Please model this.
Amino acid sequence: MKILIFWDVYWRIWRAALKKELPLLRKKYNPDFVIVNIENASSWRWPIEKHVVEIEKLWVDVMTTWDHIFDNMIKVKDYLDKIDSKLIRCANFIEYWEYNIAWKWYKIVEKNWKKLLVIHVMWEVFMNYKVSNPFLRVKEILKETELENLNWIIIDFHKETTAEWYWLWFFLDWSISFVFWTHTHIQTNDELILPKWTWILSDVWMSWPLYSVIWADYTSVEKRFLTWIGKWKIEQCLDKHYVVNWVCVEIWEDMKCESIEKIRIRGVL
Model:
């Protein structure tokens, strides 16, 4: 089984890059499942429904989010409320019985009588939200789905710091097929197979303007970096040179991960 993972589609130029590159990668890798993070698909905020549907039409199986999930909620709530929504939020937001947080926090996708579970959790350090323990939340979900006869399990762990990566790897080794991390905005060189055949990668990176400061025009951040005054407005980079980052993962029938290939493509629209 092959899975293509495409991370952090940023704004309209990189939605266009996704449309351009995904058919080519489908032809080359023939994936069984495609997972895409779309947190920034409508600029640097939670995507609106129009853009979610636009990406769903590319035959994407699961769309994940990040810490900005509620920032633009009114423009995507109707899609999130759908029974067949392909969009999932982080599973470990803190819930209270009077203020239930709706929508899916994990998703099981079935094709050709095979089931893939995708879990999405977030670490709280340097984030805007307090969340419950992600390690225990993952264990709860694995317990909750243990009768589903799952074939493969993948976890997207959204974080800013590093130490928790490595502990989670060993904490979940053998329980899952592949764990990857996001949000540090650089594709890492630490892909590894653990003793019990779980594969890990600490960051997939994102898809954004090639000549930018994360996503910003580099001249627009100059005053902020030189003066540390936050009032200076940061402008989006409009250069149409892009870089997209993928991971292709191949997993055996017994959940053991066989191979992982990092993919980095530069192009221009």
